[in-house]
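Spend some time on this chain, tokens included, and walk me through the fold:

. . .
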Amino acid sequence: MLIPHDTRIALDTVVDLVNTAPESGQNDGLADIAALYEFATNHSVSGVGDLSRRDLKAVHGVRGLFAEIFAAPDSRSAAELVNQLVAAAGTTPQLTDHDGYDWHVHYFAPGASIADHLAADCGMALAFIVVADEQERLRRCEAPDCGRAFFDLSRNRSRRSCDSRPCGNRLHVAAYRARRKEAAG
């Protein structure tokens, strides 16, 4: 699957944003404004000015909608959620070449809040995935006690675990043991 650079960056951002949610007893990765600033810096979110509790709450809302898209049972459901997300963000496509990057498209309006920025750019990246009929690549780790989001870039869409080495190892060991048990039984 050929994914343009800016779409890939947006997909990575979506995955990382979804994975900040407090699930399975983990702490919220975006518990405060400092964490939101750090997230924006680590993901090169441009145009982030002063952030407030209101911005944090709005990003939590966007994060929840992204999580729903990962859980959507079919492309129609995912499309409805993506449409809701990008419409609320007031998408305004424009070409830009900032910070040493070649021409690419931003979908957020100039001066948009960080939540609208994430909803527009990342929402459009997810829209491209739905249009390409690749929604099944939006996955959750199948390892016990994990459930982290990831985007499956494997050629045959067979990846079942997140990038965490223990998760992949646990799944491989469980599959091996199941095959051995079946062969012995």
In short: The radius of gyration is 18 Å. DSSP finds six helices and four strands in the chain. The mean pLDDT is 87.
